[in-house]
From TrEMBL:
Entry's transmembrane regions: none
Organism from which the protein derives: Pseudohalocynthiibacter aestuariivivens
Primary role: Pyrophosphatase that catalyzes the hydrolysis of nucleoside triphosphates to their monophosphate derivatives, with a high preference for the non-canonical purine nucleotides XTP (xanthosine triphosphate), dITP (deoxyinosine triphosphate) and ITP. Seems to function as a house-cleaning enzyme that removes non-canonical purine nucleotides from the nucleotide pool, thus preventing their incorporation into DNA/RNA and avoiding chromosomal lesions.
Residues annotated as catalytic: D74
Protein name: dITP/XTP pyrophosphatase
GO molecular function: ITP diphosphatase activity
Length: 202
């Protein structure tokens, strides 16, 4: 597996919540981080139907454009009773003409479960695929997952996206209620990061 040797890394995301988490997860490793959004890069279209496929699109786009290694994150929530939806389309479910509306997206998920009479526990998982790509076209992929269940009403104002409706197994706080440090100890993103750190950092 290729090691990350350069000091500077582009984080290929336009999501401020993800950038905050990725920066915190990278902080102990002495990497100098700049985001694709801060560099003014466009968002490439996420045309694949897998997390890995879309992670590769985002990381290669930023690596080519910057001439630096780039790290992307493609992630989403998979609800068992919905056969894994919204999955790769988790961000799309929140899309409105005025931007993303996550309270609306969470209530869409919950109403679908209500409409179908889904039984407790309404199990779901958060999934994350990281892609580290270099300007020469090489890449490495890492995956992480956390299992839990969905709750309603939503709880907490920490984190981002669908965090307030996700209760990880064995916990009493949703991702929206827990501190960032606690989420970083158990999240899908943290799990993928630990693979990345083991494989690519000295
Ligand atoms: O820890 C999380 N806590 C809550 N929600 C989360 C999390 N991780 C992903 N999610 C949701 C947010 C987003 O709606 C979708 C990912 O979509 P995804 O395309 O990978 O990210 P994005 O468009 O927000 O940013 P970008 O593509 O620029 O990295 O899953
Ligand atoms: Mg996206």
């Amino acid at each position: 597996m290729r090691k990350l040797t350069e000091g500077k890394l582009v984080v290929a995301t336009h999501n401020a919540g993800k950038l905050r988490e990725i920066s915190a997860l990278l902080a102990p490793h002495g990497v100098d981080v700049v985001s694709a959004a801060a560099l003014g890069f466009d968002e490439p279209e996420e045309t694949e139907d897998t997390f890995a496929g879309n992670a590769r699109i985002k990381a290669h786009f930023a690596a080519k454009k910057s001439g630096l290694p780039a790290l992307s994150d493609d992630s989403g929530i998979m609800v068992d009773a919905l056969d894994g939806a919204p999955g790769v389309y988790t961000a799309d479910w929140a899309e409105t003409p005025d931007g993303r509306d996550f309270p609306m997206a969470m209530s869409k998920v919950w109403s679908k479960l209500e409409d179908m009479g889904a039984k407790e526990p309404r199990s779901a998982s958060f999934n994350c695929t990281l892609c580290l790509a270099w300007p020469d076209g090489h890449d490495e992929l890492f995956e992480g997952k956390v299992d839990g269940r969905l709750v309603w009403p939503i709880r907490g104002s920490h984190g981002f996206g669908y965090d307030p409706m996700f209760l990880p197994n064995g916990e009493s706080e949703t991702f929206g209620e827990m501190s960032p440090e606690k989420k970083h100890g158990m999240s899908h993103r943290a799990a993928a990061f630990s693979e990345l750190v083991d494989g690519c950092f000295d």
